[in-house]
Design brief:
5% helix, mainly beta, 117 residues, 7-stranded mixed β-sheet
Length: 117
């Protein structure tokens, strides 16, 4: 049973914007923090941003001031608004529920973000 589905990736020019969506099952959305991660081939997956059930947020230093994570409780969806994109933001982006600040569910397919310089 798929519990999280990522969407919204694509190709964008440096300096541009994209909004990623993470649609969650109702139970997961209401019980767990949700976070966005990204991975580049050959590197470890890294945490990008997270948002708690209550709406508290945290960001990786590399994206602070450029990315914004939010949640829509009516749609069971978490968004990642990415602005001022850089080539180094190019990665496959994944969302996951967090349990004790660690990813909790099997990873989905992710969504590819490519920033052309």
């Amino acid at each position: 049973q798929v519990q999280l589905v990522e969407s919204g990736g694509g190709l964008v020019q440096a300096g541009g914007s994209l909004r990623l969506s993470c649609a969650a099952s109702r139970s997961i959305f209401r019980m767990y923090s949700i976070a966005w991660y990204r991975q580049v081939p050959g590197k470890q997956r890294e945490l990008v941003a997270g948002i708690s059930v209550g709406g508290s947020t945290n960001y990786a230093d590399s994206v602070k001031g450029r990315f914004n994570i939010s949640r829509d409780n009516t749609k069971n969806t978490v968004y990642l608004q990415m602005n001022s994109l850089k080539a180094e933001d190019t990665a496959v982006y994944y969302c996951n529920a967090q349990h004790f600040f660690k990813p909790y569910l099997p990873w989905g397919q992710g969504t590819q973000v490519t920033v052309a310089s």
